[in-house]
């Protein structure tokens, strides 16, 4: 029997202990990330905690690196249709199904974990409604570290960005870098080192994790953690599966999600801190944006907000309510 066949199969079995019959629920949780990724590690820790707290009555199997065959952009649909009962999904990658889910990529919107907490307070009801439309609910969110720019020369002021050929990592980052005065480049990541060495590219935009893991310090000497956006993963569960649990099981699992979420956020922050330290240990100079660069970031970001509102009108009221709370 193939893995996909097993996933589609019934998830409930009976386990007999002596003369008592105990219902066991088996769920599959898909994540695109590998075993060394903090999101995957958090999902595994959560699954273990659920298994322990329910005495094995609810057993969640975490499938790493997309091994279920569910594409990274199709996790919302996979949970909705019951292909898997749970998924760890990067929200903006589900924007093809629900355009609002791309909002967190907007520059200058969410900068750091404190702002992410405020964003989720304001946008939470909208997210809840979206996921409910797709037959699922969110158990917990975990943010990714924010992106910055890796360059040969320091980037501190707005003028320092002018004309820099920086590899972007998605369409939003391309537009943002362009509005910042850079000359963004679309380039396969594996070609970046050769391009920088050849002088056809000046650097790259990405996170501390990717920068350290890819050893960008070998060919760029400076990093500015511009912190222009922050995106979350959400771990969701299919509502049919959820409602099939007992009241006690649902209460136990939700309590665990609420309690463990703070630890998962701390793991994200620690990932950023440890990778930044690794960059420094390998000779990378960390710069800080001056006021001119911050002002240009705000200007570019708000122009992109306005464009997003034209495509996703429902986002405007949510973003404006959030901006009022954060002084943006």
The CATH class label of the domain at 3-99 and 110-143 and 231-279 is Alpha Beta
Query: Could you tell me the number of beta strands?
Result: 11
How far apart the termini lie comes to: 54 Å
Largest sheet at a glance?
A: 6 strands, mixed
Shape: globular
CATH superfamily of the domain at 3-99 and 110-143 and 231-279: Bacterial extracellular solute-binding protein, family 7
Looking at the overall shape, the CATH architecture of the domain at 3-99 and 110-143 and 231-279 is 3-Layer(aba) Sandwich
Which percent range fits the helix content? 40-55%
Note the run of SSEs as H and E. Answer: HEEHEHEHEEEHHEHEEHHEHH
Low-pLDDT segments: 1-21
- The helix count comes to 11
Structural class: alpha/beta
Strand content: 15-25%
Tell me the radius of gyration. Answer: 21 Å
CATH topology group of the domain at 3-99 and 110-143 and 231-279: D-Maltodextrin-Binding Protein, domain 2
Rounded average pLDDT: 93
């Amino acid at each position: 029997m193939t893995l996909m066949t097993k996933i589609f199969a019934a998830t409930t079995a009976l386990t007999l202990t002596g003369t008592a019959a105990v219902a066991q629920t088996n769920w599959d949780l898909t994540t695109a990330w590998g075993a060394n990724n903090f999101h995957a590690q958090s999902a595994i820790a959560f699954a273990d905690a659920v298994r322990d707290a329910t005495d094995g009555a609810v057993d969640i199997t975490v499938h790493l690196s997309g091994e279920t065959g569910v594409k990274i952009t199709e996790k919302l649909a996979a949970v909705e249709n019951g292909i898997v009962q749970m998924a760890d999904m990067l929200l903006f990658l589900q924007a093809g199904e629900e355009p609002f889910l791309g909002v967190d990529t907007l520059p200058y919107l969410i900068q750091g974990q404190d702002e992410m907490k405020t964003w989720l307070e304001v946008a939470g009801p909208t997210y809840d409604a979206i996921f409910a439309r797709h037959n699922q609910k969110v158990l917990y969110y975990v943010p990714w570290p924010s992106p910055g720019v890796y360059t040969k020369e320091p980037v501190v002021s707005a003028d320092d960005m002018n004309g820099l050929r920086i590899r972007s990592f998605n369409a939003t980052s391309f537009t943002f870098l362009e509005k910042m005065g850079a000359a963004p480049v679309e380039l396969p990541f594996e070609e970046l080192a050769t391009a920088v060495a050849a002088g056809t590219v000046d650097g790259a935009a990405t996170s501390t994790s990717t920068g350290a893991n890819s050893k960008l310090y070998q060919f760029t000497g400076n990093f500015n953690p511009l912190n222009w956006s922050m995106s979350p993963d959400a771990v969701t569960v299919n509502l049919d599966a959820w409602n099939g649990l007992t009241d006690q099981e649902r209460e136990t699992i939700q309590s665990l999600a609420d309690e463990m979420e703070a630890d998962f956020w701390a793991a994200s922050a620690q990932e950023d801190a440890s990778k930044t330290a690794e960059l420094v240990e390998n000779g990378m100079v960390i710069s800080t944006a001056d006021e001119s660069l911050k002002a240009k970031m705000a200007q570019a970001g708000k122009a992109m907000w306005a464009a997003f509102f034209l495509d996703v009108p429902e986002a405007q009221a949510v973003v404006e309510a959030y901006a009022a709370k954060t002084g943006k």
